[in-house]
Each structure stands twice: as structure tokens, then as C-alpha cells.
């Protein structure tokens, strides 16, 4: 049974497996099961994908217009090949990011719609099936944040070069900071030792009273 005060859960200790409204017959339950899945599909999956596709098309058209405008500028063959390869890599990365986002988010939205339909027709759903489906879809959704990094590293030399360059800069900054701290510590120790030697020399030179 649903046991929490606000959102509820179907099994104690597994709050993320099958959340839902505490009152299965209330107004919020109708919104949660009948309307919220479709809203989530549009705002979580379809609208972001549409915006990313539109942005990619606009970027591609802008690049093509820019290339047509600078034809008067003399460029040698290696530079032209490098620019074409760079634009092709950027376009491939954008398309791959859109496809990964769509593949990892659409199943979650479809599962929500199927669950809403099953509840609307009064179909009994097994709790173990809900937990297993939700766990698998959660893992798939979390892959959206990790796969893009590996795809960029494995397919784009430009991204690898930029990533390695940023890593070197961070390493140098960390090394400089550590080196400065070490220098400051050594300088402080040397000053303390020098001050102690001077004081000892002064005490040694003073005549006994």
C-alpha cells in the first residue's frame, strides 16, 4: 500500500522504486497517473530533442554561410581540409549527443505512459516488475551523463586535444600552487633559523654580569 504522507511508496525502504500519491483515488492521483506522464514526455524528452536538433541545423547552416562568404580569402589545401574535418567532427558530435539523449530518455517516458494506461484500465501490476523496470530505466537514464564523455573522447580528436590541454593546465596550476607553498614554508623556516642564530650569537657576545 501507499504509505508516505505526500508521495508515498509501494514498499518500505524502496522510496525510488515506485513512488506515487498517498491517496490513489484523490485529485492529485488522477493528475499524477493520467496527465503527468505526458507532460514529462514533452518537457523531458521531446522539447529538448527538438531544440537540440534545431540548434544543430542552425549551426550547420551558419557554418555553410560562413564558408561561402570567405571564399575570397586565400587558403591552402591543408587548411581547407582541416576546416572541413573540424566541421564534420562537430556535426557528428552534435548528432551523436542528440541520439544518445533521445535513446536514454525516451524509454523512461514510454514506461510512464504505459504505467498510466495500465492504471487507467485497472490492470494489476506486479511490484517486482515495477521495481526491476524502474531500476533498469534509472541506469539507462544515468548513462546519458557518462556516454557523451566517452563518445566525445573516442570519436573526436579535437575534444581529446582540448581535454588533454585543460588537464595539463590544471596540473601545472596545482603544481605551481604546491611549489609556492613549499617555497613559503622553506622561507619561513630559514628565517626562523636565521633569527635563532642571531639571537644565540648576541647572547654569546654579551659579557657575564
Annotation keywords:
79% helix, 209 residues, disordered N terminus, 4 helices, single chain, 0% strand, mainly alpha
Could you explain the architecture of this structure?
The protein is mostly helical. It has two domains: 155 residues, no CATH class; 53 residues. 79% of the residues lie in helices and 0% in strands. The chain is built from four helices and no strands. α1 runs antiparallel to α2, α2 runs antiparallel to α3 and α3 packs across α4. Its main location: membrane. It comes from Adineta steineri.
Low-confidence stretches: 1-17, 197-205
Give the SSE string.
HHHH
Termini separation comes to 94 Å
- What is the gyration radius calculated from CA atoms? 32 Å
Overall spatial form: elongated
Q: Helix proportion of residues, in percent?
A: over 70%
Helix/strand/pairing class, anyone? mainly alpha
User: Roughly what is the average pLDDT, rounded to an integer?
Assistant: 70
How large is the count of helical segments? 4
**The number of domains:** 2
Report the biggest beta sheet as strand number plus sense, adding barrel if it closes.
none
Number of strand elements: 0
Instruction: Note the beta-strand portion.
Output: under 5%
Keywords: Membrane, Transmembrane, Transmembrane helix
GO cellular component, one term: membrane
Transmembrane segments: 38-59, 90-110, 130-151
Main location: membrane
Summarize the structure.
The protein is an all-alpha fold. Helix content is 79%, strand content 0%.
